[in-house]
Design brief:
The chain is of the alpha/beta class and about 240 residues long. It has a single domain, classed as 3-Layer(aba) Sandwich (Rossmann fold), CATH 3.40.50.10320. It has seven helices and seven strands, in the order βαβαβαβαββαααβ. Strands 3-2-1-4-5-7-6 form a seven-stranded mixed beta sheet, sandwiched between helices. α1 links the parallel β1 and β2. α2 packs antiparallel against α5. The two termini are about 20 Å apart.
């Protein structure tokens, strides 16, 4: 079942990442499932990973572009404070709100605002949450040329286990389809500067296997809603992971 309802098939899936590999490692399989179902997806990467130990900014930008293409997504890069320097500031939230307005997204994904992970991940989650709210405000003078826009849902993803919220039950997305997992693995491997240093791909696959086992399927990926989700019917809510 698609992660997003059929009612917003025409609206792009908008995904924010703090670094060039965050989206692929954190929610790449969800993206693959959506684009393979015919939905447009657009990535917004908020640094070039220039503070990392491995890979130059140019190399990591190229890797991100290749990975996005493998997932069937378009991509853009925005300059905020730079890798490992991100701060939660109104000017940044307004810039991201402008992107939300420009793309008229109904579903937005971002890194969780959970503490005890890379500070850029947590702070970007806070900024996107703020941006999604202020994108609605028609009187915001900085964005007066873009019509106000309300998204339908904000969902967070965790790049690493440290980013998983401990007090919030996830939505589990079935990513067991072979074409989905192949595209996801290829996109992660496209980040060669990072994948060669540690077994990041194996880590993410292990996380997906464990989540899948929890739901009685082969692979699953977790998303965390910013607020309670409203379903039009009980059937649209899916099934319980325990599979009673």
């Amino acid at each position: 079942m698609s992660a997003i309802s059929a009612n917003d098939q025409c609206a792009p899936l908008l995904v924010f990442g703090a670094h060039p590999d965050d989206i692929e490692f954190g929610c790449g399989a969800v993206i693959a499932a959506e684009t393979q179902a015919g939905r447009a997806a657009h990535f917004v990467v908020c640094s070039l990973g220039e503070a990392g130990t491995h890979g130059s900014a140019e190399q990591r930008r190229d890797e991100a572009c290749r990975a996005a293409a493998l997932l069937g997504a378009t991509i853009e890069f925005v300059e905020l404070d730079g890798d490992s320097h991100l701060e939660v500031r109104a000017v940044h939230a307004i810039k991201l709100a402008g992107i939300i307005r420009r793309l008229r997204a109904s579903t937005v994904l971002a890194t969780t605002p959970t503490e005890n992970q890379h500070s850029d991940h947590a702070r970007l989650g806070q900024l996107v949450r703020d941006a999604a709210r202020i994108a609605r405000y028609g009187g915001l003078k900085e964005l007066i040329d873009l019509p106000a826009h309300s998204i339908e849902r904000l969902l967070f993803y965790a790049v690493t286990p440290d980013g998983e919220p401990r007090d919030l039950a996830p939505i589990l997305i079935d990513i067991s389809a072979s074409e989905v997992s192949r595209a996801w693995v290829a996109a992660m491997q496209a980040h060669g500067s990072q994948a060669a240093t540690r077994s990041y791909v194996d880590l993410q696959l292990t996380r997906a296997r464990l989540l899948g086992a929890r739901a009685g399927i082969e692979y699953a990926m977790a998303l965390y809603p910013n607020e309670p989700l409203v379903f039009e019917s009980l059937a649209a809510a899916g099934r319980g992971a325990r599979n009673f």
